[in-house]
Amino acid sequence: MARYGMVIDETKCVGCHACRVACHNQNNLDEKEAYNHLEEREYGSFPNYTREFMPVQCQHCDNPPCVKVCPTGASHKRKDGVVLVDKDRCIGCKYCIAACPYNVRIIKKEGYIEKCRFCIEFVEKGGTPACVTTCMTGVRMFGDLDDPNSEISKLIIKHKLKQFKAELNTKPRIYYRKG
Amino acid sequence: MGRMEPKGFEISRRAFLKATAAGVGILSLGHELLDFGTWARGQADSPVVRIPTLCNGCGNRCAIFAYVKNGRLWKIEGNPEANGNLGVICPKGHGYLHELYNPSRLKGPLKRVGDRFEPISWDQAYKEIAQKINLILMENGPQSIFWVNYPQPNHLYALRLMHALGSPHYFTHGSTCYTARNAGWVYTVGELPSNDLSDSRYIMIIGRNPAGGIDLGQMKRIVEAKAKGAKLVVVDPRHSETAILADEWLPIKPGTDLALLLAMIHVMVKEGLYDKRFVMERAVGFEQLEDEMVNYPPEWAERICEIPAKTIFKITREMAQARPQALIHRGYHGAFGAQYLNSFQTARAAAIANSLLGNINRKGGIYFPKTAQLGELQPKHPAPELPKVGKADGTGVPGRYPLGSYGDGIAHAIPELALRGELKAGFVYHHNPLRTNPNPKRVIAGYKKLDLLVVIDTVLSETASIAHYVLPESFYLERDEAVDTKHSGKRAQVSIQQQVVKPMYDTRPGTQIIIELARHLGVGRYFNFDIEEANRLRLKPLGVTLEELKAKGILFVGKEWKEGFDKLQTPSGKVEIYSKTLEQLGFPAIPRWEDPFVSPDPNDPHSFRLLHGKQAIHTHSMTANQPVLMALSHRYDMIRLWMNQERGERLGLKDGDWVQIKSMVGEGRIRVRLTQGIHPSCVWLPSGYGIFSKHLKTAYDIGLSYNDFLPTYFDPTVGHVMASEIIVKVSKA
């Protein structure tokens, strides 16, 4: 079976936030809720200056700290690589928020915890995550990390891509291309 | 991974409309449907309908698929067939659709009674408007009536209405946006071209920021070109969002883009780098150009524009190497759309520099897009006679604004014309001049002087707030529209905006409002059609039916673009490096250096030029009240004035401090973003904020608009607004 993952090409991100608003609609979020965010960084001094945006969302770790600390099994890892929260089992204890090093989990007003789900229900029907398809510069690519011939697998090898905070041994399923 | 269409989501549009029409479900269930949580819980596995239409979140009119679940709009996706957006959607598009459910929306027609509004029926509103217009027509003549809009696909019907009444006064927002750029291109190559970005090997963009003032198709094509090895150079006083993708960012001193272009032309001429055959066969006036360009070596330009001479040499030589697959972007608002006293000549210089690269209508260069030629309503529905009087703004009139666009008019002159009593009554449609025109105190005084102001909008904008009558237009997802040719490009396309959900309130489509106004105003004989019949007549010559178009949303019609040089639409049929027309009108016939109209005082640490530009999440003044988008402005602290860090520190400022800005016409308070990413001589204000209509609660009194600081100017050639000729004093608040 496919085991999903993503490549985020930071060098192409111009910080427009289409990914966030597309995600908002796809997942029926409230105004202030978001499953992804951007971190802007500036380098150099005038006129030798540049800046970049880094898109961040749930990294769907293979060694997910959120799953380890969850007392009820609500945060869980699926066979297809996706990390989900089962809202019916979530007691809103927020241990997962404290454990996640990526700051990507939110508290829904009903009290349970949510985060990027890789649009998995949509993907299972043949769709592609909303943050991927909306992007005008093609920052994100979604695919099967277990398939060595998938576009993302080839990109990871070609550019020797790394994960975000790989040193924490969380083994994220998202790989970043940096400038 | 390629794009996939979700399976098993489709039911027919007819079945859907039938279902939602039953018992006017949406109106009677209004409260439940407005409660997002109730809806979200119920929508999990409901059937989804997908309807192709066009977005109305800005003027690009991107082709989209709208998804409806349980009678409520769910989301939109990009239509991959469309030239303009190639399957992707911007944040404004995703966010603006929520306006459908914004409680700030107008829910029925309103009439001013004293200092407040009262509901009025459509019929009574039309009757009263017609009575007042007829009185004004009798007393002041037809030229005292105007229509101004940010063009919608139905703009030709608005023009027909004005002509039917005998008035020449149809205006667009153009004089505040792009008329200098358009005129520069028109007086050089005969029309406004496009950029063939995807096949270009060297792209230079001056002032335009398609990643912020979003153009999705351009961004996709820039990325495509870069993947093929193209170089991207962005010239902008601010490190724009497009500059993030650039190989080189050239932070030019604002208002001096003309000096850079003149020096590039100088290098091409002096070193013989230009396309000699193209210039010999396809251009007039090269000898005069050689004479004038002697004055502009890169060393001269460096002193004016602060781009090092060696950079100018290098870039020009690199571009000449890549020609004809090298281009200087045609521009939009930024840098030379309507910014400076020298903007018209800057646009001319850009057109001439491209011509020297021999890239006109060449692959990877500047090209003339294919546009679908829609059919006419006449002879079946005869057109009214053209008005016998000229426009009071003086567009196209020697001695006034001879290079001004008659079609656009000079909309920001309306307040003056009203104060002088030349305009007495006006219709403002999908436009908000009180917020988007310079110097609002003057605009308010002018529009308030009108004997009758009718505003057609979806919310009580600043302009609607002072109207005598407000006619509520149905939201774009609630209405059918006139067929559209906005998606011109390598292949001509025709597109259509169509109804996705039933109207929630007592609103009507703009086209229907125009037709009903005409009938009440006694000129219904020119409007003996409805939108459907008009659309069928317009589509007839294209060989596609309305049904085919509605099924797809957008269709290719006509031939593909091919490179090659045909006779241009200039008097000589060639590229007019030297323009006899300009010579006869008394303007420089070859571009020559002109200073900006005003400049900051280099000895005053408080003195800056005020620039502005779009953020990707906002359009004009129409999205700031959308909570989904405004939440982003707050979350990312985007409502700040950009200032060079060293200049800020000299004023004792820290990042995030409040400052006071003051110009000769206005003042305001805002927080600063201190950054190394902006030229020290200017500050940059994001546009889209500064809403002062108290009816728009999410946006009210948040941020500032550059228009608060811009004096009322009319450029002497084109009549544009000179939107960056603003000097402000900034101090710690």
What does this structure look like?
The complex is a heterodimer of chains A (179) and B (733). Chain A is α+β, with helices and mostly antiparallel strands and 179 residues long. Chain A contains six helices and ten strands, in the order E-H-E-E-H-E-E-H-E-E-H-H-E-H-E-E. Chain A has helices spanning 18-26, 65-69, 95-99, 120-124, 130-133, 151-158, and strands at 4-9, 36-45, 48-57, 75-77, 83-85, 106-107, 113-114, 140-144, 162-163, 174-177. In chain A, strands 8-1-10-9 form a four-stranded mixed beta sheet. In chain A, strands 2-3 form a two-stranded antiparallel ribbon. Chain A has a two-stranded antiparallel sheet with strand order 4-5. In chain A, strand 6 (106-107) and strand 7 form a beta hairpin. The mean pLDDT of chain A is 97. Chain B is of the alpha/beta class and 733 residues long. Among the domains of chain B are: 190-369 and 568-578, 3-Layer(aba) Sandwich (Dimethylsulfoxide Reductase, domain 2), CATH 3.40.228.10; 607-732, Beta Barrel (Barwin-like endoglucanases). Helix content of chain B is 30%, strand content 17%. Chain B is built from 25 helices and 26 strands. Chain B has a seven-stranded mixed beta sheet. In chain B, strands 21-25-22-24-23-26 form a six-stranded mixed beta barrel. In chain B, helix 7 (155-165) runs parallel beside helix 20 and helix 10 (257-270) packs across helix 14 (309-322). The longest helix of chain B is centred in the first third of the chain and has 19 residues, at 122-140. Chains A and B meet through helix 1, strand 2, strand 3, helix 5 and strand 8 of A and helix 4, strand 3, helix 5, helix 9 and helix 24 of B.
